[in-house]
Amino acid sequence: MIRGILFDLNGTLIDILTDEGDPAIFRTVANFLNYRNLEMSPEECRDFYFDHNRKQRHNSPEKYPEFDVTAIFRDMIAAARPLAGTVPADDELPRVLSQIFRAASRKKLALYDQAIPVLRELRRHYRLEAVSDGQRIWAEPEWRQCGLDEFFTAPVVSSDYGYRKPDERLFRHGLARIGLKPEETIYVGNDLYRDVLGAARLGMKTVFFRSNQGDWTEQEREPDYRIYSLSELPAAISFLATRA
């Protein structure tokens, strides 16, 4: 019997577009550092961000490592050159700079069509929660801005754990949040590798939403159902629920 639905967020419910390669982002970061009496050129900011992102993941013991964006900017602030005198300590500055970076890189943030009506229909019959890769410092304000906090009380976000999907542990955290077993739950995602493969390995039914994002490369596990619009999701879940 299907009793719960776990969702991916970005690319499944949230249509988000970011461009971290845009030079304007790192000019914004460098300019902001100037206002905090620190100096690092836009090019240095860019190289520092990507180099430390790679190093974090390379040095992680995890098979599917997640990076920590706040730690990257904490290290960047420590490496920046003081413009004059002593730079006052500011424990919040790495978090602020992380969000400035995201704000500068974000080009689009919206819900996919029919997301809210579909979620409202599904919550009448199922327990809902989200399991998503991402940085909580970015993801939480974004899902709240999109109105998804109405449906998800404690989403699982990979940055809290240091590993990302398809690591089965993330899905287990989501199941624990709604108090259900894998065979009682369907996972809905837009990525055949991170979402479908990871959830299927744990024994969950899967619905693959072929949105404008994600990896569509065929994997060792086929999704149990494919949809091309969220409006198709209730029918997909009803079909799978009768075969659970």
Question: What is the element layout, followed by pairings?
Answer:
Elements: E1 4-7, E2 14-18, H1 23-35, E3 38-39, H2 42-59, H3 69-79, E4 81-82, H4 93-105, E5 106-111, H5 115-122, E6 127-132, H6 136-145, E7 156-157, H7 168-178, E8 185-189, H8 192-201, E9 205-209, E10 225-227, H9 233-241
Parallel strand pairs: 1-6, 1-8, 6-7, 8-9, 9-10
Antiparallel strand pairs: 2-5, 3-4
Helix pairs in contact: 1-2, 1-4, 2-3, 3-4
Short description:
With 244 residues, this protein is of the alpha/beta class.
Q: Helix/strand-derived class?
A: alpha/beta
The number of strands is 10
- Cα(first) to Cα(last) distance is 6 Å
Radius of gyration: 20 Å
Summed up, the helix count is 9
**Can you write the helix and strand succession as a string?**
EEHEHHEHEHEHEHEHEEH
Instruction: Let me know the largest β-sheet.
Output: 6 strands, parallel
Strand content: 15-25%
Q: Mean pLDDT, as a whole number? A: 95
CATH architecture of the largest domain: 3-Layer(aba) Sandwich
Name the helicity range: 40-55%
Structural features, described:
- This protein is 42% helix and 16% strand.
- It is α/β, with parallel strands linked by helices.
- The strands form three sheets. The protein has a six-stranded parallel beta sheet with strand order 7-6-1-8-9-10, with helices on both faces.
- It has two domains: 4-17 and 109-241, Rossmann fold, CATH 3.40.50; 18-107.
- It is elongated and about 70 Å long.
- It starts with a strand and ends with a helix.
